[in-house]
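Q: My collaborator sent me two sequences in one message, no labels, and asked for predicted structures for both. Can we handle them in order? The first one she listed is below.
A: Yes, handling them in the order given. First sequence, followed by its structure tokens:
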Amino acid sequence: MADPTAFIHDSMPLTRTLGVTAEKLDPSEVVLRLEWAEALCTAGGVLHGGALMTLADSAGAACAFLNLPEGATATSTIESKTNFMGAVREGGVTARASVLHAGRTTIVVEATITDANGRLVAKTLQTQAVLGP
């Protein structure tokens, strides 16, 4: 893949709007990054949980897509649960997603979000439906 960020932006336009960049797109791991910006914050300058969940969902969706079984064409999130462990008031965050289960009808993905210091900020577990032609 020549430009992983362009792939993410083209397949999920919201990632372009938020400024998400792709550091790694591989079936074994997807790594996406989001920089802190005031426009993405809630009270007190804290990066909004919805922005973090969007980052995790995007990383998970890309990872699931890269692990689709033969004949499948896309995925769709059907369940997602996020636990937040800390607030982010500056710098960026990185989401690392990997597959826990790749089945014929569903793919389960785990995403870990860390801040610029490597501190755990959030953990997401999601199920992606496998979509056919």
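Q: And the one she listed second?
A: Here it is, processed independently of the first:
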Amino acid sequence: MEALKKELNTIRTGHASPALIEHLKVEYAGVPTSLIQIAGISTSGANTLVIQPWDRSSLHSIEKAILKSDLGLNPINDGNVLRINIPPLSEERRQELVRVVRGRLEKERVIIRNFRRETMDEMRKAEKNKEISQDELKRDLDLLQKLTDKYIALADQVGKDKEVEIEQV
């Protein structure tokens, strides 16, 4: 769930959030480095991000990485910091982002179901090898299904929360 939340935080909403860009890879000293490792990222107001690099020589590399990303953001370089104004989302873009959230949510459901299937296979193999009884297998399979349902419901809730966040004007 934490990985899903982290992934959904990278989806842009109408508000400035450091999570939007902190994962970006910046070419620093010839090595791709996460932006969060080479700069401080803060918000200034509800719609502006401020990036203060630890090393001013990396300013141009950070700017280039932001422009190359698929976020559609344009940084303003004043020589010391980068400022990014987060424009409000159009209705069309909001709908597109909701579809992206739903796609990532479906991937998460598939991952959960795959874990369930792998665990069921292991349990059935243990029962076949007489490591557990049929009663234990049935009880454990029921428990596994309840856990699967719980985590799918949690993922759905995380997705719904993100959709509400995206659709707020």
